[in-house]
Specification:
By secondary structure, the chain is α+β, with helices and mostly antiparallel strands. The chain has 15 helices and 16 strands. β9 and β10 form a beta hairpin. The structure holds histidyl-adenosine monophosphate.
Amino acid sequence: MYQKIKGTEDIYGDDISYWYWIEKTAREISAVYGFEEIRTPIFEETGLFVRSVGETTDIVQKEMYTFEDKGGRSNTLRPEGTAPTVRAFIENGFINKGFPQKYFYIGPMFRYEKPQSGRQRQFHQFGAELFGSPSPLADAEIVIFVDNFLKKLGLLDYELHINSIGCKECRITYKEKLKEYYQNHFEELCDDCKARYDKNPLRLLDCKVDVELAKSAPKITEHLCDKCRKHYETFRNILDLEEIKYFENPRLVRGLDYYNGPVFEVVHNRLGTMSSIAGGGRYDGLVKELGGKDTPALGFAAGLERLVLALKSENVEIPKVRTNLVYVTHIGNVVAEAFKLANNLRSEGIPTALEIMERGLSAQLKHAGRVGSKLVVIVAEEEFSEGIVVVKNMETGEQYEYDKNFVVSGVKELLESLK
Ligand code: HAM
């Protein structure tokens, strides 16, 4: 027997309703905010991710699903959606369409991480990217978009954490300060952090091991240049005016290297260690870095698996996807009539199952009960010849007789009364 690959999930049963709800809400809110859908390939040239996510990040160093194709080219299953969207933006000449340009995507991503609840090797993101605006209004727009999305889903128990990691210039002085601080504690650092010290000192703040050291480290927000400080301030002012609650977290640096300026993460309070349900920020240098014209950009992505966990943890009532609401059974030589009736019910959009196993009536009724049908339509040869069809309410056991020409309207009325 084959088994699914570690870190992947089959999504089925009751969970499907959660996925429908999240995807439907994501599509609706994207349309409302003016984001168009983009679907990029699941795999890309490896270099795209190395160049954008960053050579020294955990994703590139340890987590990419990289393989050689039969032509000897190195490909990688996308670990995230920003780099592919930027690649598509450049390659398809979106720059000529005027600014801002706004895209969203929903789809699977792949990272070779240690699987646990809320962390998979194949997971799904809803993400959005906005191109062309250097203004803090765009940063606020993205955060408000995320907040509205989460509220529309029905979530309440989450926190928005924000920070600014400044531009290249602010980071030159800040990195020096940071290294000065960590130099005095070098021997206490974990092995990963010892390597980060030279290669990517900002990431020292993000370490899950050396948490205490990071708490007293110098704060980047105290070393921002004038432009970055003002940008961050306006961003926060808009959030204040829009009454979006946030926490400033000077240790929030994100796990990808392309960011500059404001960054953010949304943390759900009931998810334990894998609590980040969404994250994003500004990445003004990336379009140019990947060969396009200098174009400011920013965005976010939310993890769908974690959103499902969050909805469950808050007991959010979501619309259930209904199948088999009505079950059409048949006895005797009435197959054509049963097919026709099922077809008529289905044309009205009523989720209808039709008996296709050729069982006896009691077996049909038993199965209708097992699949949760609310009503069973019984097309029986004898009654049908007299122009009658019986409909049974599976909950109460009550039976109703209808003229064969009025079954659909009868079923509709009964379903209405069951709501
Ligand atoms: P990220 O923070 O790496 O950002 O991922 C975004 C979200 O994806 C996380 O907050 C989390 O909910 C989910 N996620 C990440 N890894 C896993 C995993 N292994 N299993 C389950 N869920 C996971 C990005 O990917 C950026 N591209 C976001 C962005 C878009 N920034 C600007 N534009």
